[in-house]
Amino acid sequence: MRILVTGASGLLGLNLALEAAKGHEVVGTVNTQLLQCEDFEVIQTDLLAPSAVEHLLDDIQPDWVIHCAALANVDACEADPALAQKLNTELPGKLASYVARGGARMLHVSTDAVFDGQRGDYCEEDLPNPLSTYAKTKLAGEMAVASANREALIARVNLFGWSASGKRSLAEFFFNNLSIGNKVQGFTDVYFCPLLANDLAHIMLAMLSQALCGVYHVVSPCCLSKYEFGVKIAEQFGLNRDLIEPSSVEEAGLLAQRSPNLTLQTDKLQAALGDPLPDVYSGIAQLYQLSKQGYPEQIRNLTG
After folding, report:
1. Quick check: is 170 in a domain?
2. Residues 6+ apart with CB under 8 A from 243
3. pLDDT tens for each residue of 78-133
4. DSSP characters for 125-177?
5. Average pLDDT over residues 186-191
């Protein structure tokens, strides 16, 4: 398959492109963060520029399109809602429309944050209630994609992993700080179900290969608090867990409002794929193994 991955320098996009390139022909787009990569073709483009999406699809002629590009920094979206609207809502809708015309299959990456987190245990049919600008624009992006392309896949995700900058995931936050003896806060009142980016990549490829469509929750079947996540990272890497101070998100002074309980049901996805999903705990163990294999340094070197 010829796969187009947008946002190929991001946390998910880069890990996804590298995993997909092991068995497929991959083209990845980047904007300002250049990549020097032999595993897949890299195209620098501003997807918001006039006719950029049309020209890209005409030139690449992909079989599958996986749209990872987004303004994913929650507080940055709060500070610049107009840009968040363009990147997280308007661009996905436009891309979905042109993908549908060309006959390729599309997977659009959304977020668990479309829910307000007041009760948790959400299934795909539950009514979203986004709290932040990021979440609102991502939900609007889901709606734009579904309206423009009825065959599109929409994956609500939460993930961690190694990134090109070394600073893109919560796992890296805990690892980087604990490794140099810094004290950090871990929220005891925020629950989530993250997947390792590499695991998420393989699941997404399986979803596309089975021609699934519609909305799916693509997260770990096991959930934990962000404090517990930090403790697991510390224990896996042999770091001092006592440096993690239990705290409340309400006291953190964050610009955008966060959803406290983003536990999501994965029954629909597991039934569709026919196999158990990997969980956050196996993902943390694999994160450690990847570090021992020099993977973090390898992907950091791709940025030159």
Report:
1. no
2. 177, 178, 181, 182, 183, 184, 234
3. 999 999 999 999 999 999 999 999 999 999 999 999 999 999 999 999 999 999 99
4. TSPP---SHHHHHHHHHHHHHHHH-TT-EEEEE-EE---SSS-SSHHHHHHHH
5. 96
Q: Please report how the helices 280-292 and 197-209 are oriented relative to each other, as an axis angle in degrees rounded to 10.
A: 110
Kindly state whether residue 22 falls inside one of the protein's structural domains: yes
| Total number of domains constituting the chain | 1
| pTM for the predicted model, two decimal places | 0.96
Q: Is 288 a member of any domain?
A: no
Q: Output the CA–CA distances (angstroms, integers) from residue 258 to 114, 115, 261, in the order listed.
A: 11, 10, 9
Q: Is 188 a domain residue? A: no
DSSP string, 161-218: ---SSS-SSHHHHHHHHHHTT--EEEESS-EE--EEHHHHHHHHHHHHHTT--EEEEE
pLDDT digits (tens, 9 = 90+) for 15-49: 999 999 999 999 999 998 889 999 999 999 999 99
What CATH number corresponds to the domain at position 126? 3.40.50.720
Angle at 219 (CA atoms; ends 33, 113), nearest 5 degrees? 70
Q: For residue 209, what are the domain limits?
A: 2-164+193-221+264-282
